[in-house]
């Protein structure tokens, strides 16, 4: 789009959080003082001082990284009015939605996401909505077909009355939306009708989920499919044939080909198929992608994002526009610490002032040509001569579909794609690019498209884009751009955190490492540090666990890891807490939320992130590959914020830490400690640290006395006690120790296998044999 408009379409402002900076600097100062003190006196003190010193060095390093990332926050303001002067020039936009499992991701949720996208305030003839279904589920397809019928009523209704929340399940749960009944009886009539129609839609989908659909007619194609082994299904559910501005946008259903022996690369694989199929059909220069659990909350969001992407400066520099992830179903005071609000504000803002926000996998507007591997200063594609060489070269990169290469060339050159009159004519060629083998020997997943190799494909793909020299921007208009559902309990949350931590750590160890990106690519130094901040989550678990073990160890052995005069530690504790509290309050969160986040940080780091760390160790040892365990999206509104537990080993470290601290506190209370070595004994500092940890692990403490799913299972308690007995009694024979480690590893492998089995990868035999091994061992003991 040529820019004749001299005024920028967006502005960027730097923020100054002076108070935050001062407090953070004090924290750093005290950390450095502490390290200095340790270096001066380390010779006089026993072993715990060395461990403490190592951990504190790591904490200081991470603190420097955190400060650097937060130091220069920036935010953007978009000028819709200026963009709307050029309304007729608005570019086409392809909308991608991914879903993978109709059980964990009920189709009604996906349908709401799609409906909210169809109703975007944007010319309908420029939109096309593609849904990728990795579950190959006739139910999802059915739900979408029915939703497209409902959409014909819903979209005009939303536009006529300027409805804000265009996902019906959210709209109808807000009674305030009909406050103006008296003023507008006509509106009320229509509102009632919509509510009724949505009710029909919902019950139709519910019925279909209870009574299997007859696989005839349009559904016959699903009759011989298994969701891990089937050929490509692409269906044009609705086509805006007349190219009308206010009709319904195209709706296309895609279930890519799957073969049992072919790695499908989880979501990244699905995104690449969506990119290619849409390239064959509409080839819009911009792509918005949403997970099936996020819906549009601000119908003008596409316009806001395009202000940034179409701005004359943005056009040259900005690869993607990321909107924050926020959740509608957050429990009061965020008991599971999974709302990530302050994270997006402080770190999101901080990245905004550097090379740009990370790609978070959903709520993001991409430039298609960047996805195709283009660099910002790359103009040789435009200057290339036409000829066989170019075609061959393109085939090596993009695969052998002539039609796709044609469309990719258009996208790379920034030309508008000729509109296709009948989408169904493209189906055969589109199926070809959605097949398993299409990517063989091409650059897909390597230099082009979503990058493979990590379960955090989002951060990896964004990192690759930043390393090419592109920037990105954050866009947070009011009202909030998108809303989604967050993991509903601590178990789902832990699984998600484990996947993130392992996926991110995987990137750190790969050739995409941000420091290599800084040295050999165009990643800016502080952006690389910012990436390190997030990629090192799994690593952080190790020093945290060691540090958490110190107070208990010292109390039990009557030694110390803290100096006699505690003022440096005390000052550190105060400045750190003041700065995090003030950040929470400034973001509008309560003190309770702050505390919940603090304590969940400790729990998550020492359990989920630690397991993420182990998962990558197992990968390095070639014992098992990490899997993408899909987050459950079922509404559990009955959740009261209490912790749930199960037999997963993920609860083992936390339970053990709690037991150790409790034992230590009891020891100190009753004066049981035995004196070892010649150092001074423990002091109030160690006792305070131990008590602080117990406070963090209060949910586990309650779990000891809870019943049903709120109680910690006996097997976990048993294993924790074993672990403590083992590690505190060096005389216990090596054999038991070995057995214990074996049990732990086996357990871990069984969990992985179960997750795989859920995705029907691994045959049951393997799983069963592992179970028997464990039962055997337990009997032997
Ligand atoms: O084989 C798969 C697995 C997942 N998905 C889809 O990927 C999305 C994200 O999965 P989800 O289980 O919801 O993961 P979250 O932890 O909620 O997702 C966050 O973290 C992921 C990376 O770990 C990113 O991909 C997501 O965009 C980001 O929201 C969902 O739409 C899934 O349907 C697929 O399409 N195919
Ligand atoms: Mn999700």
TrEMBL record:
One of its GO terms (cellular component) is plasma membrane. GO terms for biological process: cell wall organization; cellulose biosynthetic process; plant-type primary cell wall biogenesis. The active site is at residues 134, 458. One of its GO terms (molecular function) is cellulose synthase activity. Mn(2+) binds at residues 267, 291. Its main location: membrane. It is a multi-pass membrane protein. Keywords: Cell wall biogenesis/degradation, Glycosyltransferase, Membrane, Transferase, Transmembrane, Transmembrane helix. InterPro entries: Cellulose_synth, DUF1068, Nucleotide-diphossugar_trans. This is Cellulose synthase-like protein.
């Amino acid at each position: 789009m040529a820019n004749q408009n001299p005024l920028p379409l967006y502005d960027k402002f730097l923020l100054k959080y002076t108070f935050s900076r001062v407090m953070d600097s004090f924290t750093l100062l005290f950390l450095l003082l502490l390290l200095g003190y340790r270096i001066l006196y380390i010779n006089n003190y026993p072993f715990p001082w060395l461990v403490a010193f190592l951990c504190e060095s790591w904490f200081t390093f991470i603190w420097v990284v955190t400060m650097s990332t937060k130091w220069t926050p920036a935010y953007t303001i978009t000028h819709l009015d200026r963009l709307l002067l050029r309304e007729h020039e608005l570019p086409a936009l392809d909308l991608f939605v991914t879903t993978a499992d109709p059980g964990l991701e009920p189709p009604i949720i996906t349908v709401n996401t799609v409906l909210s996208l169809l109703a975007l305030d944007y010319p309908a003839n420029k939109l096309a909505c593609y849904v990728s279904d990795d579950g190959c589920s006739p139910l999802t397809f059915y739900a979408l077909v029915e939703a497209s019928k409902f959409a014909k009523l819903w979209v005009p209704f939303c536009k006529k009355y300027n409805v804000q929340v265009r996902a019906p399940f959210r709209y109808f749960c807000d009674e305030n939306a009909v406050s103006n009944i008296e003023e507008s009886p006509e509106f009320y009539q229509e509102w009632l009708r919509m509510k009724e129609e949505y009710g029909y839609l919902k019950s139709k989908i519910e019925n279909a989920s209870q009574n299997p659909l007859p696989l005839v007619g349009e559904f016959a194609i699903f009759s011989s499919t298994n969701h891990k082994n089937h050929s490509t299904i692409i269906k044009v559910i609705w086509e805006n044939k007349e190219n009308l501005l206010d009709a319904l946008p195209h709706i296309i259903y895609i279930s890519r080909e799957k073969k049992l022996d072919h790695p499908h690369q989880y979501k990244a694989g699905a995104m690449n198929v969506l990119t290619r199929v849409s390239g064959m059909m509409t080839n819009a220069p911009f792509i918005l992608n949403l997970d099936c659990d996020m819906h549009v909350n601000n119908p003008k969001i596409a316009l806001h994002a395009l202000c940034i992407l179409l701005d004359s400066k943005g056009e040259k520099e900005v690869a993607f526009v990321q909107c924050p992830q926020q959740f509608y179903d957050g429990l009061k005071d965020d008991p599971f610490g999974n709302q990530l609000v302050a994270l997006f504000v402080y770190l999101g803002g901080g990245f905004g002032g550097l090379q740009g926000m990370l790609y978070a996998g959903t709520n993001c507007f991409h430039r298609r040509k960047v996805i195709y591997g283009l660099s910002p200063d790359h103009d040789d594609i435009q200057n290339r001569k036409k000829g066989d060489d170019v075609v061959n070269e393109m085939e090596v990169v993009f695969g052998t579909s002539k039609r796709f290469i044609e469309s990719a060339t258009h996208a790379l050159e920034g030309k508008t794609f000729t509109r296709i009159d009948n989408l169904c004519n493209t189906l055969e060629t589109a199926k070809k690019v959605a097949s398993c083998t299409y990517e063989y020997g091409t650059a897909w997943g390597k230099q082009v498209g979503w990058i493979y190799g990590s379960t955090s494909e989002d951060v990896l793909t964004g990192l690759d884009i930043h390393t090419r020299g592109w920037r990105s921007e954050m866009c947070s208009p009011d009202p909030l751009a998108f809303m989604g559902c967050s993991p509903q309990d601590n178990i789902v949350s832990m699984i998600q955190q484990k996947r993130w931590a392992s996926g991110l750590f995987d990137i750190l160890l790969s050739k995409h490492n941000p420091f290599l990106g800084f040295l050999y690519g165009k990643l800016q130094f502080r952006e690389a540090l910012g990436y390190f901040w997030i990629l090192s989550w799994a690593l952080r678990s190790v020093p945290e666990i060691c540090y958490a073990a110190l107070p208990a160890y010292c109390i039990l052995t009557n030694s110390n890891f803290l100096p006699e005069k505690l003022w440096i530690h005390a000052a550190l504790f105060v400045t750190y807490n003041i700065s995090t509290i003030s950040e929470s309050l400034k973001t509008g969160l309560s003190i309770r939320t702050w505390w919940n986040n603090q304590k969940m940080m400790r729990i998550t780091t020492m359990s989920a992130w630690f397991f993420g760390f182990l998962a990558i160790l197992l990968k390095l040892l070639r014992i098992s590959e990490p899997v993408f365990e899909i987050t459950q999206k079922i509404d559990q509104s009955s959740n009261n914020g209490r912790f749930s537990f199960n037999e997963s080993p993920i609860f083992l470290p936390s339970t053990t830490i709690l037991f150790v601290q409790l034992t230590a506190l009891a020891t100190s209370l009753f004066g049981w400690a035995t004196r070892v070595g010649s150092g001074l004994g423990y002091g109030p500092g160690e006792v305070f640290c131990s008590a602080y940890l117990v406070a963090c692990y209060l949910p586990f403490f309650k779990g000891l006395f809870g019943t049903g799913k709120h109680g910690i299972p006996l097997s976990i308690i048993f294993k924790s006690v074993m672990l403590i007995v083992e590690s505190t009694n060096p005389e216990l024979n090596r054999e038991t120790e070995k057995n214990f480690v074996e049990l732990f590893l086996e357990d871990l492998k069984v969990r992985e296998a179960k997750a795989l089995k859920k995705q029907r990868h691994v045959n049951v035999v393997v799983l069963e044999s592992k179970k028997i091994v464990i039962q055997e061992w337990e009997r032997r003991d």
